């Protein structure tokens, strides 16, 4: 197996990356294959050589976007052993996401969750899968924290994951709406203080 | 002046109400005038008799949607004199919005904030105006609470308004994504407890 990508693979990758940027700003349904042809400088036929449909391309762009954001979390979590530190690292990533977003249109899962409806079941399903895996990342750390005695025993891991996610995703929206990262900073500070309040005395 | 609406005004109103429902689910940019003609059972020409452009119709549908949601807040705030009770009422409205949404696609401001980008400056501006007025409603109650001594003096009204909004709007998104109002219930419970923590002892 060769480690270098073929020309076709490189073209495909270039289409996916450009589509991820464009669709992140403009939305999946509002972006046409003609838009993407113009943005990539390719013929529409060339796009269809790589993707059977706009939906197939949208899915590939979404998966790429989710992986791009996921890498930030992997980096932040590397070397964090204690559950409470993992939770703080997850929340803290959003500070950097607000200051230096990996995609121009913000969080792909949030965008997809808002945009997708019953007309795009495949896209909706992928957004649910991505959000569920993110919920599990937080829930698992919370559960470990309860088991290890770092977090108070009444902490409900699923509930904590939901509250953290709601607060941060809402702050992504607010920062995007007002073009002002202050909303994310306030949300992160609030959650850090909330996490502190869940830590068993002497385990911070 | 007659209090009954002319046929033209009734038709206009019917278009706006139907457009608000459809665009709330499908998005403003993904909904075409042809879609709205089909949904209202009118000719496209008839839509253009009432609205110069899809953007003009989208703006009218957005204003109507914001007013529809705003009425829930007016009802909840009626008779609430103390600042802390006003804050609790505002947060509590979201429970009923999750259980019985006034629009099928959820919060119009959230949808507009996510969907609108530099391609739709007028829509983005309206979303900012609507969100700012909502922030002021919360911020004003918080400020009154600090002045009256109900809330702790270190409470920052703008920050509190931002945290409440982020948490609730994020929970709207989560409940919509998973078709499960539990996320909204957790968010509301979390914020009610947070508000309790800001109340000066003896003033709850």
UniProtKB/TrEMBL annotation, chains A, B:
SUPFAM superfamilies: Homeodomain-like, Tetracyclin repressor-like, C-terminal domain. It comes from the Bacteria. InterPro entries: DNA-bd_HTH_TetR-type_CS, Homeodomain-like_sf, HTH_TetR, Tet_transcr_reg_TetR-rel_C_sf, TetR_C. Keywords: DNA-binding, Transcription, Transcription regulation. Pfam families: TetR_C_13, TetR_N. Residues 32-51 bind DNA. PANTHER family: HTH-TYPE TRANSCRIPTIONAL REGULATOR LMRA, TRANSCRIPTIONAL REGULATORY PROTEIN. This is Transcriptional regulator, AcrR family.
